[in-house]
Structures are given as structure tokens and as C-alpha cells.
Design brief:
Elements: H1 3-37, H2 56-64, E1 69-74, H3 88-104, E2 107-109, H4 138-154, E3 159-164, H5 170-184, E4 189-191, H6 198-209, H7 222-229, H8 238-244, E5 248-249, E6 252-253, H9 257-290
Parallel strand pairs: 1-2, 1-3, 3-4
Antiparallel strand pairs: 5-6
Helix pairs in contact: 3-9, 4-5, 6-9, 7-9
């Protein structure tokens, strides 16, 4: 055999040896992963509906125990007048998603998507004209929602509720829900417009609570401030405003903390009830449509 042929044969044998070793390593790695995935939870589970607060084992066990719905919410980082934190909608969602998930009984909350379209960056338009606002392109926003929803589906959630806390989030969430359902050939994603029905909230506040706002021109509202205060009064600078004599918005005082929190809780419950009813109806309709 020539020296050239001998070198070629040696090279082939070395490559095959490495392939065999790599294949064995891959098999061992997969076996370890499968063993880990099947491990029993070693400690008591945390009582939380937030996926990001749970361990992967707690999420796995929650799904196995019947948590079949994931709630995917979008908020924003935007200017909200001189008193309210830029993360207003994210604080709002902290309170609402928790209540919605626990009312449903079979749901967990995905991490809030906080980066949403808020206007053009260059040149700045919309909320982007105010410092602190963060904006993403519409296509980026929709890709994030798609990827997040696809991740949730991959882990076994049978239904994914799309809830947007800001007006600019609605069309993107609707688009993605339609797109992923078509791609999955199943009604899994449910865009719930009833969650963001501001007119209904304002009507309820006026008719049931006797509260009517008169706009002072800020991107700030009493109904939303009251709800946000149930999560954290400091996000609307409650104590600073009381001290400065600025504890009101649109003609409505927030100075009485207990009274404002009571109103906020009623408004939160109103939105929870409407959202849960609409989501349950969407899931029921999807079940009927998907049956042969």
C-alpha cells in the first residue's frame, strides 16, 4: 500500500473514532438531560402564578397538574405625565395578570413584555419625544410575541391569552395571534380585545362609582392611577404628591389612600371579570371549532 493511501486510511479511521466518541458523548448528554427532566421536585413548590418566579420543575409540575393556559401580556415604557412612572402599564399588568390567572385557576403568567412600539426613534415621534421612553419597531414587537408564544406552546400550554395594556399594542398582538394559529393549524392563541376596553372602564366608573374625569392634558388618568396604586402607590409618587399638594388628577383626588385603593380594587375586579369571561368564551369557541 502506498504511503499516500495509508495516510488517507489513517485519517478516515481517526475521523470515525472522533465521530464515535462525539456520538457517545451526545447520547450520554441526552441521557443525563432525560434523567434530569424526570427528577422529582425536591422541595415544596412556591405559590406563584408567574413563570419567571418558578423553577422549571415547578412549571413542569404545574402544567402536569392542569395549568393549561399561559397569559402573555405586553405593557410599555413611555411618558405618563409628571407624576407616574414610565413603566405604568407594567405595574398595572402585575396586578391584573395575577388576579386573572388566579380567577381562571388553570393559568400561569408569562413575563411581561415591556418593550413595545412607542413611536419612531429617528426622528423621535409620539412618546419617543419624552426622555425615558423606549421603543421597538413593529416587526421586532411582533417577532418577540411570536417567539414567546411559540416557547409557551412548546412546553405544553394548550391556550395562550394575548393581553395588551396599551392602545399601540393591540394590532400587533392581534396579527400574531392570527399568524401563529394559522401556522399551528389550531386555535391556541387568543387575542382578547375586551382586556383593553377603556370606554367600558370609564363608563363603569361613572355609572357605578359616580366618578367622572375632566382631562388636564396629561397622559395620565385617575382610573389607571387608582388601579396602579393597588400594586404600588409609589409608582404614582403618592407621598411626594400629597406633600406637595399635587394629589389629584383630572379633577379627582387621590389624597385619601384607603378610599383610592378601594376604587382601584373595584376597577381591577371589573377588568378581571370582563377579561376572564371573554377568555373563557374564546377557549370554548376554539374547542368547538377544533373538534372534527
Amino acid at each position: 500500500m502506498s504511503r499516500h493511501k495509508l495516510l488517507s486510511l489513517t485519517t478516515v479511521l481517526i475521523v470515525l473514532a472522533f465521530v464515535g466518541i462525539a456520538g457517545g458523548q451526545d447520547a450520554d448528554r441526552e441521557a443525563r438531560i432525560q434523567s434530569e427532566l424526570a427528577m422529582l421536585r425536591p422541595i415544596e413548590a412556591l405559590d406563584s402564578v408567574w413563570i419567571e418566579e418558578l423553577t422549571w420543575i415547578e412549571v413542569r409540575d404545574a402544567i402536569a397538574a392542569g395549568k393549561r393556559t399561559a397569559i402573555l401580556t405586553t405593557g410599555g415604557i413611555e411618558q405618563n405625565g409628571p407624576y407616574v412612572a414610565t413603566g405604568k402599564h407594567n405595574y398595572e399588568l402585575q396586578g391584573l395578570c395575577e388576579r386573572i390567572a388566579r380567577t381562571l385557576g388553570d393559568a400561569l403568567c408569562a413575563p411581561i413584555i415591556k418593550l413595545v412600539p412607542e413611536g419612531s426613534v429617528d426622528p423621535p415621534t409620539g412618546h419617543m419625544r419624552y426622555p425615558g421612553t423606549l421603543s421597538v419597531r413593529q416587526e421586532t414587537f411582533e417577532m418577540m410575541i411570536d417567539d414567546a408564544a411559540s416557547s409557551l406552546k412548546a412546553h405544553g400550554f394548550e391556550h395562550i391569552a394575548f393581553l395588551g395594556a396599551s392602545g399601540g399594542n393591540q394590532s400587533g398582538m392581534r396579527n400574531v395571534a392570527e399568524q401563529v394559529n394559522e401556522r399551528w393549524n389550531a386555535s391556541i392563541a387568543h387575542f382578547i380585545p375586551e382586556f383593553y376596553n377603556v370606554d367600558d372602564v370609564i363608563a363603569y366608573m361613572g355609572e357605578e362609582l359616580g366618578i367622572v374625569e375632566e382631562s388636564e392634558g396629561y397622559h395620565d388618568y385617575f382610573w389607571l392611577t387608582a388601579m396602579q396604586m393597588t400594586v404600588d402607590p409609589e409608582t404614582v409618587r403618592y407621598h411626594q404628591r400629597v406633600k406637595a399638594g399635587k394629589a389629584s388628577i383630572n379633577g379627582q383626588s387621590i389624597a385619601d389612600l384607603e378610599a383610592t385603593l378601594e376604587i382601584g380594587e373595584k376597577l381591577m375586579q371589573f377588568r378581571v371579570d370582563k377579561t376572564v369571561k371573554a377568555l373563557r368564551a374564546a377557549i370554548a369557541a376554539a374547542g368547538s371549532a377544533d373538534r372534527p
